[in-house]
Structure formats: C-alpha cells, structure tokens
Amino acid sequence: MDAVAHAIADPVRRDILFMLRAGTLTVGEIAGCFAISRPAVSRHLRVLRECGLVRDELVGRRRIYRLDAAPLAEVAEWVAVIRAPGGWDQRLDALETEVRRTRRERSMRRTAAHGERGERTEDTA
C-alpha cells in the first residue's frame, strides 16, 4: 500500500491515472497533455507501473498504457477505516439525548414562566 500511496501522492501521476480511466494511451499521447518533458512523463509512468497501477503493452513500435485500479482497493479500504467513526456513534447519540432533554426543560420553564405571568395578569386585572 505504501508504494501505491506514494504513487498517487504526485499530482502528475494522479492526472495520468485519471486520463487512463477513459482508455488506453501511448506515452506520446500522455506526454502531450503535460508541460513537462516526455522523459519526465516516462518516469512517472515507471513509478505507476512498478506499483501496479498501470500496465503496458508493446504493440508494434508503440507502448500502450492502461489503468489497473486493483491496487487502489487497499488504499480505499484504509481510507474507509480512517473515515469511519471510532465510537462516535454512541457519543453523538448521547449528545442528541442531552440536547433534547435541555430543549424539553427550557420549554417547560418557559411554559411555567408564562403560566405564572398569566396568573399575575389575572390577579392584577
């Protein structure tokens, strides 16, 4: 997972992966979308290939790259675990209960205060 996380940490590599989502591309087609040199794009593709995020195939004289998103599953699982609440459900339920109790008590106090005023009004009238 560390190699995949390292690979997707770079914005150029993320863009390459995004481009390959739509289909296969040659290194020339990929390099044409960036302001960096073709050898630099090749180095990014090598990093992506070494961690298994892209596969390459030699077709004639052209090397065709395609996305293999399978290694991202482990990263996705890790992110899901990190994002999952760790005991927060009970804490949020307790907070919700406390908020409702406080609202109910305030409402009862207001009602009682209005009732007392109402009685005073009747006494003075």
From TrEMBL:
GO terms for molecular function: DNA binding; DNA-binding transcription factor activity. The keyword Transcription applies. Residues 1-87 form the HTH arsR-type domain. CDD domains: HTH_ARSR. The keyword Repeat does not apply. Keywords: DNA-binding, Transcription, Transcription regulation. PROSITE patterns: HTH_ARSR_2. It holds the Pfam family HTH_5. Residues 113-125 have a biased composition (Basic and acidic residues). It comes from the Bacteria. InterPro entries: ArsR-like_HTH (IPR011991), HTH_ArsR_DNA-bd_dom (IPR001845), HTH_MetalResp_TranReg (IPR051081), WH-like_DNA-bd_sf (IPR036388), WH_DNA-bd_sf (IPR036390). Residues 100-125 are annotated as: Disordered. Residues 101-112 have a biased composition (Basic residues). SMART domains: HTH_ARSR. This is Winged helix-turn-helix transcriptional regulator. It comes from Streptomyces liliifuscus. The lineage of its organism: Bacteria, Bacillati, Actinomycetota, Actinomycetes, Kitasatosporales.
